[in-house]
Amino acid sequence: MENMEELRAAIKGKKTLVFGPPGCGKGNRSKDLEALGLVHVSSGIALRAKVRDDPDSELSKKAVDFMKRGELVPDDIVVPIIMEHLNRDECRKNGFVLDGFPRTKDQADVLFSQVGIDLVLYLDVPHKFLLYGIVEGNRRLCVDCATGYSDFDPPRKEGVCDKCAGKLIKRTDDNVKTVENRLKLYEEQTKLFLRDIEIKATVEILPITVSDEEVIDDKYLKKLKGRVYWVQTDQGSKARMLNLEGMKKRLYNLLAETFIVPAKRD
Ligand code: AMP
């Protein structure tokens, strides 16, 4: 993407949504969109902030129980929190990227009946990589800006965020059991209504793998740490995977094709 200012101007005010399973990179893609001026609205971050700021309220106690188990927090708690965020002036003026919401069909119905979404980005990541990326990749997140790192995409200085120098922490729910539960819920409840979403908004697939395939061993995978690395696809073959910078470039190209190219054609 050559002209960032052109892209910033084209995307201003857009209402976007990142969709995909836990660990697919919704947080990092949201950060890429935030860098273009959109407001990042994450249901996970909003819930964790609510629990942190007001730990003794009934709402927080109820939410935290579900979150610890990797289960979905009930809609009557999540929906008002998110809709309140989206109605803020900053979201109306600058546009937003919604991350982690909707996760149930009811959440999707409320969202799409009240807000017109310009673009849904579906992050297509081989299933086998998700658990691997979060648990074996030792995922850690910035407490301030929520940028995610792993052993594949490590920060320049361990424990410190490259982008804002915030502290990096491991999420307490990033353990095998909870992540498996979150993946199961995604398959059972969330992925199913992607078809409904396709009727209501433009959905673009953002794949994380590069097309050429090759058989490669784990040792090599470790060697490629932080650059391009390899992942087993759901079909059982190995595919090259883009790192953070690669994905950002792919995302910005897709945004340019969606919002700049058609406008120039008109
Ligand atoms: P996340 O940071 O998106 O992985 O979310 C962390 C946890 O917050 C999830 O495992 C759920 O317990 C809860 N959560 C986040 N978003 C939602 C949502 N849209 N609906 C219900 N629960 C949610």
From TrEMBL:
Residues of the Adenylate kinase active site lid domain: 139-173
Transmembrane segments: none
Species this chain originates from: marine sediment metagenome
GO molecular function annotations of the record: AMP kinase activity; ATP binding
Keywords: Kinase, Nucleotide-binding, Transferase
PANTHER family in the cross-refs: NUCLEOTIDE KINASE
Name of this chain's protein: Adenylate kinase active site lid domain-containing protein
